[in-house]
Amino acid sequence: MKNKIILSTILSIASTPLFMVNMAQAHQEQAFAIAIHGGAGTINKSKMTEKKRKAYEDKLKEARDTGYALLADGKSSQTAVIAAIQILEDSPLFNAGKGAVYTFDGEHELDASIMNGKTLNAGAVSGVKTVKSPIALAEAVMEKSVHVMLSGEGAEVFAKQQGLESVENSYFDTDARYQSLLKAKKQLAEKEKELKDFQAAHQTLNNEYKFGTVGAVALDKSGTITAGTSTGGMTAKRFGRIGDAPIVGAGTYANNDSCAVSATGHGEYFIRYHVAADICARMQYQGISLEKAADVVINDVLVKAGGSGGVIAIDVAGNITMPFNSTGMYRASKSSNGEEFVGIFKDD
Ligand code: ASP
């Protein structure tokens, strides 16, 4: 008798409109999605053969779909972001991990960061030379150290302590990036002669030398967003230069109260205009959509300042936006609402 009463009470609550609305909301809250990028810059459409385009798009899809499958399986956005980025780090096509650009001195110095939008915990590394997966090291800094950012040799010691895979610096070598270095150094030498100033000469290196950074943002079924970014920085960088990618708020930012962003482009501008955090702050304080906030920062603020590049961004409702003000940005996305995208140019 008692059980019957309990059962009928449960059934009557379950059929109330309020209960049904809550269930519908719970169902909606299970939305999940991922967006990734493989860098923005001057990507010459006329030089993009079908074969080359396919190679890029296939790799982007592989990274995106790997992250998406993890999310579908109920894994965290942090796990999905790391998995997607590691696929791009391992590919010689992108300027992160294998295939990273060369410094002026002919080495590779890698930067990466990750941020979790629920805990606001973040981890970053800069100038590492022998860590195979800089994004894995950034995650270890976030999870296993009391710090947010480690650099250079200290970061490498920490990576060893954490048992992360290390490689020779030459592991990151590719001929295409080496040719870019030679070209950049030739241009630098000519301009330095003309302008009698190395820094002014450096200013003339165009976007062709700085695309290919990789990043991912994701929303998981629990409603948490995460952002991560990994890069070799800019070709012919010197004096231990560090870009925006490992700087929380500049190249990477995530906050469940607003959005998660991973950036790519001319790092000096992204640092000074704290691009990733600015997009999230505009959304939160101005009450505008993610799309609007990202569009203003990339296509207005940065354009006026002269900073080229783009971002991928996601909010807790699963909205995704991927604006850029350069000729192209390698990018892909997939949402549990059935939408998916892969492309390079504006009209893709
Ligand atoms: N933002 C990176 C940096 O300045 C480069 C890039 O995104 O291509 O180091």
UniProtKB/TrEMBL annotation:
Statement: the UniProt record of this protein carries the keyword Coiled coil: yes
Annotated Gene3D superfamilies: (Glycosyl)asparaginase (3.60.20.30)
GO terms, molecular function: hydrolase activity, acting on carbon-nitrogen (but not peptide) bonds, in linear amides; peptidase activity
Pfam family name, one: Asparaginase_2
Transmembrane segments: none
Keyword Magnesium: no
PANTHER family, per database record: L-ASPARAGINASE, N(4)-(BETA-N-ACETYLGLUCOSAMINYL)-L-ASPARAGINASE
Protein name: Isoaspartyl peptidase
Species assigned in the record: Cognaticolwellia beringensis
